[in-house]
Write a structure and sequence with these properties.
Elements (H helix, E strand, L loop, with lengths): L1 E4 L2 E4 L9 H23 L8 H44 L6 E2 L2 E8 L10 E8 L2 E9 L3 H21 L3 H23 L16 E8 L4 E7 L5 E4 L2 E4 L21 E5 L5 E5 L2 H4 L10 H8 L7 H16 L7 E8 L3 H16 L1
């Protein structure tokens, strides 16, 4: 088998065979130091004397060896931690890649705040892509944390990135996501219980994903499908209000989708107006006295900034949230901000032309 590394192809190493050379190098020096200390105790005549000077010399030897071992192990652990963080950052750049700052005239910014100190990725997911059907956005939240949540988020995001371009309607995009999630959960159940030989009808009954799908076409029309996710906030002038108050569908996972999936018409997003998508960790965050974080208040205060851009909204909201929670939020938080920065004159001309066509 051929393994590709920095020095070219090398035969004899398999992807399933762990490379034990770094482990041997890491343990070699501590073992050598320990062997020297034991050899000193057994062979050196000074180590077998009972005088004060002999005892001080022996203590100094073992203190030096112990200190060297601690320093070496701490350096090894720090090196492994840096490598793990680099790997997590690379995984995040693939799973939650930053959206383009501008898509078809829409300015977009997104960020995630992890509840676990040092963690880079979790169960929150978001993506925005420009398609021939309009700009399509997904925001979701996988129940739980850890590697299983990351795998589920990757399965949903991978399906969305394909379906958003392939499917003409949001309803068909949502069904693709539902099938991808069900397939992922079956495969995970098979991997977790390989001896059973069978996969139950509901392999991971407690697993679910809340998903919000948005579509913004060239005329600013907003369409949505929501499976158990919080509705985004609409920022219009100085007003902050939910995009709609319609009841969402159940989350993906526990229940099958209904046969009919009517896409909700949510009106228009005129130039200058903004949508803020978020996960429930934003409004569930509490301070030391148990008071919930007010996301509408933070958004309203962000609108009073000198320059209101999607990036400044993100920065001000996250700053307010960290101040509210004392720097330790209890759950992951993801925000995605979409602002219509299209030419207002062209938009007004197009709207007028549509109105005349309707009147005729």
């Amino acid at each position: 088998m051929i393994r590709i590394n920095a020095r070219g192809p090398t035969r004899g190493w398999s992807a399933r065979e762990p490379d034990r050379r770094p482990l041997c190098r890491a343990l070699g020096l501590p073992l050598a130091w320990g062997a020297m200390a034991v050899l000193y105790k057994l062979v050196c005549p000074l180590a077998r004397q009972d005088g004060l000077g002999a005892r001080l010399a022996t203590s100094a030897v073992f203190f030096t060896v112990g200190t060297g071992l601690m320093v070496h192990l701490s350096r090894t652990l720090l090196r492994e931690l840096r490598q793990a963080r680099r790997a997590a950052g690379a995984a995040q750049s693939v799973l939650l890649r930053p959206p383009p700052p501008r898509l078809d005239g829409l300015s977009i910014a997104a960020a995630q705040l992890s509840a676990d100190r040092g963690a880079a990725i979790g169960g929150d997911l978001y993506e925005a892509v420009a398609t021939e059907h309009g700009v399509r956005v997904v925001m979701g939240d996988v129940r739980g944390h850890g590697l299983s949540a990351i795998g589920t988020a990757a399965a949903v995001l991978g399906s969305f990135r394909e379906a958003a371009h392939d499917e003409p309607g949001l309803d068909r995009v949502l069904r693709r996501l539902d099938r991808a999630l069900a397939r992922h959960l079956r495969e995970r159940a098979r991997a977790e219980h390989p001896a059973s030989g069978q996969v139950p009808d509901t392999p991971v009954a407690e697993e679910f994903v809340t998903v919000l799908l948005l579509e913004i076409d060239r005329d600013g029309e907003v369409r949505a499908l929501n499976c158990g996710h919080p509705w985004p906030y609409l920022l219009s002038g100085a007003r902050v209000e939910p995009l709609t108050r319609a009841d969402p569908l159940p989350p993906l996972g526990p229940f099958p989708l209904p046969p009919d999936l009517p896409v909700l018409e949510c009106g228009q997003l005129p130039p200058g107006e903004t949508l803020v998508l978020y996960t429930d960790g934003a409004e569930d965050a509490r301070d030391a006295r148990g008071r919930f974080f007010s996301l509408p208040t933070a958004l309203s205060e962000a609108l009073h900034a000198h320059s209101v851009t999607p990036q400044t909204i993100l920065r001000r909201v996250f700053t307010a949230l960290l101040r509210h929670t004392g720097g330790t939020p209890a759950d992951d938080v993801a925000l995605l901000v979409v602002r219509n920065d299209r030419d207002p004159h062209l938009w007004a001309a197009r709207a007028g032309a549509d109105g005349q066509a309707t009147a005729v």
